[in-house]
## 1
Amino acid sequence: MATSLNLRAALVSFLLLAAFLLVWQGATAGFGGTSGGLPAGMDPEYAKLMGLTATTGKSAMPSPLDVGGALMKMLSDPFYDKGPNDKGIGIQLAYSLGRVLLGYAIAVLVAVPLGFLIGMSALMSRALDPFIQVLKPISPLAWMPLALYTIKDSGISAIFVIFICSVWPMLLNTAFGVASVRKEWLNVARTLEVGPLKRAFTVILPAAAPTILTGMRISIGIAWLVIVAAEMLVGGTGIGYFVWNEWNNLSITNVIIAILIIGVTGMVLDQILAAVARLVTFPE
Amino acid sequence: MTDSRYVSIEGIARRYTAAGGRTTTVFEDLWFSMNKGDFACIIGHSGCGKTTVLNILAGLDAPDTGAAIMDGQAIAGPSLERAVIFQGHALLPWRTVLGNVTYAVSSRHRRWSAQKVRDHAMRFIELVGLKGAENKRPSELSGGMKQRVGIARALSIEPKMLLMDEPFSALDALTRGTLQDEVRRICLETGQTVFMITHDVDEAIYLADRIVLMTNGPQAVVAEIVDNPLPRDRRRLDIHKQPDFYAVRNHLIDFLVERSKTFKSALPPGYDHRHPPVVRPTTGLSTPPDGDMRAA
Ligand SMILES: Nc1ncnc2c1ncn2[C@@H]1O[C@H](COP(=O)(O)OP(=O)(O)OP(=O)(O)O)[C@@H](O)[C@H]1O
Ligand SMILES: [Mg+2]
């Protein structure tokens, strides 16, 4: 039953994709139009500005086949480096991943111990709560000017923004997970005279691990959302900068490819953490 | 007799302050004691404070006044001398059966080698009949098996006193019976001092030497202590053929149904909190068999 459901779901997914690609292909195949001349009513200035795509009557939107071809070409040589404005997609992705993982790692190192502290102490939990509640809803982009002004270095600013945005879900989840460890388990440790440090590692951490991982999963999603926006602002390298750059080049094909890659990478990051979460989750 | 008291509860009270500032007294001026090797059961209606008493004995909770004393020392906190079998078994789900037991053993014997800890743990896993399941996680076990792990974990630290909070209440009758047999055998063999909470009158009669009857809360008191008249070598399956069985059973059921509510409002003349009356119901002085009544 379960396998047949999976099979049917996969089939429906495939059909939806096929239908989407077909509609896309149909919509971008061009209107035939007035061969050679300008489409009726088009301002010649605008036509000049927009380049060939607009004037030929063919849609500026690339077809799925164009995108597929370009993607193949990119993937065949993802790591070339021909100067600041022309790097392979693999290199750009690596820059983004590097920033995300660095900012995220710092956030984990801060959020998990601090969350432990907050979760174990009712006092700290109450004292820090107003700060967390105010800081949590701030948009990553709002931090950017402040980061650029104080840190100066744009690369570090991007990492800082990743850090500051991904720290909250982990902090809150860790604190919640630690605070809601079953009292019975703590009592087991207490009756065995297990010391506080050993108790933290042998009871609280494993008990809170699934909740902590949930926070980490939310955080990696946020970090990956933020990096694209941050790199658009900061410029230089990374998949976000790539999108911006290709938009300035008016290469919609490359923009679409970048979108696809951003989506797939985000999914992979999420799935990695989901797999880790499964490793530390034990049903009772 | 008073000199040989191994565990004694001396005038303890426990109060909770509600949100509105009103305090409720769960119990007050509660006294009773146990000898070494005693198997005591405490019976009383839900909410009368049985778990609170057990937690105080375990050192997980502290009385507001009075003291609990074991082996000449006031109980000031949890200790490896007293093992607890929790109501909800409280196994650590991320550890295997063996892992749960070794966690206890290695806490008790911090200098032991891993191999020694493991061998010791395996001995107790075998004792409760779980050999072969030592690498399973709690989620893969049945309710009875989980409870066995809890028992193995508690016994493996070889405590001076075993505290059990309704250890068998979540089990089916068959499993409960087998586990009762095993626990009784182990405790008799090792001369274990046991304090156990139960709601099951028959269980109390089968296992306990002495049964502490607690009245309804709040302000519960120990109504009396029932000295079990059945011979020590009783067997579960034909225990109802013992001459005094129905005398004890009726006495207990009568208490749960009637006297647990009314006892406090009309304390018998000469009732002393410090020395609750000890009664020993035998066929001579009790009502005839009335087998169908059940504890509320
Ligand atoms: N943390 C608490 N705050 C306030 N009241 C409490 C608290 N813990 C227990 N009580 C009260 O103390 C009383 C005794 O509780 P306890 O758990 O000892 O009962 P019990 O006899 O073990 O009941 P049961 O048979 O249902 O397990 C109850 O009336 C309960 O409402
Ligand atoms: Mg209870």
## 2
Amino acid sequence: MGLLTVLKKLKQKEKEIRLLILGLDNAGKTTILKRINGEDISSISPTLGFNIKTLAYNGYKLNIWDVGGQKSIRSYWRNYFEQTDGLVWVVDSADRPDRFADCKLELHGLLTEERLSGASLLIFANKQDLPGALSSEEIAELLDLKTIQTHHWQIVGCSAVTGENLLKGMDWVVTDISKRIYMLD
Amino acid sequence: MSRRAVVDVTPDAVLKFNKPTEKFLCPVSANTFIEFLEFRIRDVESNRAMFEVKRPSHEIDWNARDLSGSDELRKISYTFPAEFLSYKAIGTTLVFAVCPAGIKNFRMIERHYFKNRLIKSFDFTFGFCIPGSVNTWESVYTMPPLDSDQIQEMIDSPDQTMSDSFYFVDDELIMHNKASYRYST
Ligand SMILES: Nc1nc2c(ncn2[C@@H]2O[C@H](COP(=O)(O)OP(=O)(O)O)[C@@H](O)[C@H]2O)c(=O)[nH]1
Ligand SMILES: [Mg+2]
């Protein structure tokens, strides 16, 4: 029995996937998480710490971590990198133009983090339901996604309010991760 | 009397327990780290709350907490309608405040028993908690399908479904709560 078989057995006990949802404050991270989980999204207050959901998804046990995005607590993000299989970066596609520079900087900063080096990257271009929202192509351009070569990535335009494309994004990230870590299945 | 528990109550030790403990394994005063703000149990399919407790305010005065609580306050007795046993998925939400110093490594282990047999065990590592933060964790789990004989047996055995919840900070037990469950028709 080779090492890979042993590793597979270990992980298989309970196929767990850890996702970390980050992004600037007000991007819609908590709303996306609640929406995916079938909860009421009408009263969401800013996240002053973390908000975790543990749920079953396509045969996996997903632990999804949504950590507050206010500037004052961004320095704590690094405490949640360990063992992350997928990073979900949420963008408010109708945000003020000056915030996209900050958004790009924070994202590219994360991609140089060693503890996130193996993670798949899903970018949610959220709030597509708003009239002023930029398209996912425009967001990809603003965030300079084409230069990313260190991570498997995908951008998906979505709306946490209508639910549009949320599952499409989740499916992509879970499938991409499972191909890597549960390769032998 | 020593503040320390008699046995060395490590996470590994707790994970070997196969029946409810007779006593609480740490004093109430061991918890200088967290304060529960809300606890909720919901039926996921209908998104209906089955049980809900909330503190009126999320503001905690960390210098004036009452740590003299009696053991009665660490025990809760739930009565659920019998339909509970046939729900497909249950979500339990815990909201808690963290002390101003923060926590390096926070972990919860919960052992559920029926008639002194282990039926379920949860082991969740929150890890780092931001100083002064408010955090939420919802765990959605699929209920094991029970046949009608099993359901009847559980209804006929009030308070024989029990759980012990253990909370650790840096592998040291800081809180131990107990619950018992009965199902009414
Ligand atoms: N129109 C619209 N508003 C959204 C969407 N997603 C989130 N919001 C709103 O944006 C605000 C911030 O959402 P929240 O989830 O708290 O953002 P977070 O700080 O990233 O967690 C809230 O008022 C949400 O109702 C969306 O897809 N469309
Ligand atoms: Mg939030």
## 3
Amino acid sequence: MTAKVEVKNLTKIFGRRIPRAQQLLSEGKSKAEILEETGATVGVSRANFSVQDGEIFVIMGLSGSGKSTLIRMINRLIEPTEGEIAIDGEDLMTLDKNGLREVRRKKMSMVFQNFALFPNRTILQNVGYGLEVQGVDQDTRDKKAHDSLELVGLHGYDDQYPQQLSGGMQQRVGLARALANDAEVLLMDEAFSALDPLNRKDMQDELLELQEKMHKTIIFISHDLNEALRIGDRIMIMKDGVIVQTGTPEDILTNPADDYVERFIEDVDRTKVLTVANVMIRPNTVNIDKDGPRIALRRMRDNDISSIYVVDNERRFVGFADADDVAALIQQGNRDLSSVVTKREVPITSPDTPVRDLMDQISSTPVPFAVLDDQKHLVGIIVRGAVLGAIAGNEVTE
Amino acid sequence: MPILMGQLPLADWINALVKWLTQFTGFFNAITNFIGAIVNAFQWVFDLIPQWLFIVLILALTFWATRRGKKWSLLTFELLGLLLIWNLGYWRDMTQTLTLVLTSSLIALVIGIPLGIWMAKSDIVELIMKPVLDLMQTMPAFVYLIPAVAFFGIGMVPGVLASVIFAMPPTVRMTNLGIRQVPADLIEAADSYGSTSWQKLIKVQLPLAKSTLMAGVNQSMMLSLSMVVIASMIGALGLGTQVYFAVGRNDAGSGFTAGIAIVILAIILDRITQALNKGQQHS
Ligand SMILES: Nc1ncnc2c1ncn2[C@@H]1O[C@H](COP(=O)(O)OP(=O)(O)OP(=O)(O)O)[C@@H](O)[C@H]1O
Ligand SMILES: [Mg+2]
């Protein structure tokens, strides 16, 4: 994997007396001290991180911790005070207006908390906006916009106006707009926060499903640890403009870097008992109707796993295949996976089962739990580490 | 008191400035000719249309502009009002006033909207423009007559220009306001998808500012209508002239009838522009 987005020493200071504030910052003064002394607000303080190609990278932190500022510096909606941003190794800070506009058109798309759809444009025109400003002709952009709407599951709303749609639908439009111009990097600032819990969950599922197909690099801001755990490949936690921890969900849960992070984790667990949906992760799957043994084997190798879950065209759970069996199949020249798929040893559970109920079995089963919804779709899997981490966090509060 | 020792020669300075400006006769003549041409064009068209056809056209425009809204009472009012103006013998005066109002509104629009846009895009311009607009609007309108005559002589053109100065501020202000009111996240959305400033203006800011902007245009039109009597003092023809003469002759009857004709015209213009604005919002 390569770094898609790389951020070095990125700093934003709002207000006056910025040089003085910068100096104080380099002397290691805190946000509060700098505000006291200069009146300048440190939005983000020397952030360093990189986001891998195809990764969902979640940024968390309390209100005012600098998340929005940080994500807006990545496409330079907010001009950094200092630091570097590189996309695919290309330094954005050296770009002039035209160069920056090109990058915004081709490489990055943004999804907003309150959708930010243009009320004077139809759904189709909203989704086609990015293409329109690039000068793409109407037929092409209407077609792409339409496809993109289909992709997020919105049919038949092309000619409606945003006000006519529910919040969940509007955010689907927001997502479709971001997908329409094929940008590789999606910047999502609390994209699901304005939605009610059910819609939010749907959108998370939708995003994961899309991500499975599209392999975007997604930088996603969230307030909600459950959301972060569900969708994040890695999570970065910020406080007062400073990055306090970056790691996989498991890292964060099992080894919180400091009290702040620990409180973050506690907060979530105090408010609700963890369910399977909170701790499940995205499985690596092969599609039995489409993929053959070679694909299956390659996917296992790429992800360093010895077995893989098998689903059908509609993501319904079929079973589970072992790398050795698949390799044997390839040797025989057999192109059909079905003979090696087994259902036997896989423990199965549903998304709203409390994690506690599974604790005993989790330590004894050899393969991760498969989480199936009512229609037997494979929505996630449960690996032991994540659950232990979550429970460990849980016990702190009791 | 030292402050009373010498009067500040502010009036002299302004006189000197006006005098100095009058030497650019060529420039002012060009403007006079240009605006004169617009005035003549409007008037030529209005003179060409027979009264009955004019009334039908106004009714048709209203009918079309109000679309689904309530329209019958307005249509009746317009029909009766215009017939009354015709009957009172004010028809030509009415079209002259209409010419004055339309020309000055048009100019106020052409100058005011770009100024408003500029003001919305730059905080410094806004800072400078705000007191200037306040000044333009609160300065007694009579005051504009003096330099207007100095630069443009007497007749329709100085009347139009005095009206423009007095009537333009709402258009500028409301354009600025409308653009600044566009929600920040929509601007961010436009920027983040790589719009140029022009694209952002045309595709996002102006369409979303439109109804506010149109309210400003409507106000400008009403203000320029309120200028017609004043403008008649420097020779701008129309209903204002009738009022002005009535004052001179101490003739309350004609004064009121001409005044009523102005009110009728004002209501018609106001309702039509409002209906146009409303009708456009959701299409
Ligand atoms: N335009 C601005 N001018 C001055 N200060 C700002 C500006 N924008 C943000 N800040 C300050 O920068 C800090 C970070 O703000 P930011 O909006 O990035 O936080 P956030 O983590 O996104 O918060 P939230 O969760 O509430 O969205 C805050 O202290 C905020 O007051
Ligand atoms: Mg924010």
